[in-house]
Inverse folding.
């Protein structure tokens, strides 16, 4: 069994993925860390390029693009590890990014899933959602440039104005970089394939909470080259809206546990 495994789903990610793979293969030996890529029918030669330059990385190919979660689920079937990192190809890691999070999980058996500080290239923090999705939060993300109340809603969604200097329970663990106990991930059956893209990470978080705590864990950080595709493309916006309705429909009758306290319920 590997100490770590890393799963990366790619779609035309040749320009972004090289730095991440260079880091992973430099920081970890092939015996310590299992790195698997699922290529979702890229047209830029991503899969071939990875195989040529990183022979220790396992490359899987999908015959059709069935989405982010489905791609990761093909990887999850192949992993044999203690801890699994779900990583976007546009992430850059530090040498301690994965080990520190796994060490935290070693020492806190009540925790099942963690995410670190996510930074922009300039070192500023990316404030990604940490509370469960609500309609007003999603409006806040799209309309925050117009000021209050939208900016207030977005800040509440991301817990931006809270001093998160130590590990803190959250209800939304971002899919761009998170680490989860592999046995729990397999019990959950991975992601829900019904989500093509967006909200599959919120859904996975919610299901993982059945087994223990999910935490924002600022013991380390990674850098995310974030593009927010849904704000730039009508196509991605349509996918996001479809996934939003799917998420709310799936969880509308849920009473497993209350969400994190906020100023006001919707």
């Amino acid at each position: 069994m590997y100490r770590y495994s890393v799963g990366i789903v790619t779609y035309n990610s040749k320009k972004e993925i090289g730095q991440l793979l260079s880091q992973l293969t430099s920081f970890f030996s092939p015996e310590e860390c299992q790195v698997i890529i699922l290529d979702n029918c890229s047209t830029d030669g991503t899969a071939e390029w990875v195989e040529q330059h990183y022979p220790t990385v396992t490359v899987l190919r999908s015959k059709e693009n069935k989405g982010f979660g489905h791609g990761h689920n093909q990887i999850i079937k192949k992993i044999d590890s203690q801890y699994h990192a779900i990583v976007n190809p546009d992430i850059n890691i530090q040498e301690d990014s994965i080990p520190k999070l796994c060490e935290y999980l070693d020492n806190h058996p009540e925790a099942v899933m963690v995410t670190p500080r996510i930074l922009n290239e300039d070192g500023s923090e990316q404030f990604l959602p940490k509370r469960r999705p609500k309609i007003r939060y999603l409006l806040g993300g799209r309309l925050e440039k117009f000021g209050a109340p939208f900016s207030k809603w977005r800040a509440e969604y991301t817990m931006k104005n809270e001093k998160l200097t130590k590990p803190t329970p959250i209800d939304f663990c971002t899919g761009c970089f998170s680490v989860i106990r592999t046995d729990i991930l397999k019990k959950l059956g991975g992601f829900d394939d019904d989500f093509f893209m967006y909200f599959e990470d919120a859904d996975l978080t919610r299901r993982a909470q059945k087994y223990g705590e999910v935490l924002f864990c600022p013991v380390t950080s990674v850098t995310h080259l974030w593009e927010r595709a849904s704000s730039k493309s009508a196509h991605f916006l349509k996918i996001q809206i479809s996934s939003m309705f799917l998420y709310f429909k799936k969880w509308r009758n849920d009473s497993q546990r209350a969400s994190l306290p906020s100023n006001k319920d919707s």
